[in-house]
Amino acid sequence: MSGPQCCENPPTLSPSSGVGSVIEFGGLKSYVSGPSDSKLAVLLAADVYADKVAAAGFYVVVPDFFYGDPYDPANEEKPLLVWKSLHEPAKAFEDAKPVIEALKSKGISAIGAAGFCYGAKVVVELAKSGLIQAGVLLHPSFVTLDDVKEVKAPLAILGAEVDKLSPPELVKKFEEILLSKSEVGSFVKIFPGVAHGWTVRYKLDDEKAVKSAEEAHQDMLNWFTKYVN
């Protein structure tokens, strides 16, 4: 989403995919899935694994922070930098606040959030603000050392060995900062042999890629199970 690797091998979408539904939630068109009476919720920013997380018992919300305007590499009139200027993560963070309030108003008592690529910046802002109980960043983009220094909620970071946006050297610095914050739980892992975007953009016939993505998804679920309760 913030680099070519996130736009490769896009998912095949169909009107019947998913077991949830699309509703307006917190002022945004959102995909929701999972038990509506759950007291535990996860906000995803923003990708396609809501049903997997919901199957673990969470009420999952995937807000459309792009307002129906996802990045399209084929659209020459709106190259990446132009598109990003119209969809800054700071705006998505502000848009996430009413979603969090809507979750609380329906009786949710604990909220986690996971951000893939672009969405990681949104989630780290939520973790800095104290609005969530735990966060997970998967191949993050735009996240800085200063961001990590200000995190208040337990944070897991899942990085790729090949990643120009968050190279292993930067992820290791994130880890050093988190380890120095004894009051904040943390988990940092760099996945070998994978590139930025690997958890959401992989070929189903690539056994190694599927295994690595599934491992990351399980790490994410384990983190939420531990801290969103």
Automatic annotation (TrEMBL):
InterPro entries: AB_hydrolase_fold (IPR029058), Dienelactn_hydro (IPR002925). Pfam families: DLH (PF01738). Residues 50-227 form the Dienelactone hydrolase domain. Coiled coil: none annotated. This is Dienelactone hydrolase domain-containing protein. It comes from Rehmannia glutinosa (Chinese foxglove). The lineage of its organism: Eukaryota, Viridiplantae, Streptophyta, Embryophyta, Tracheophyta.
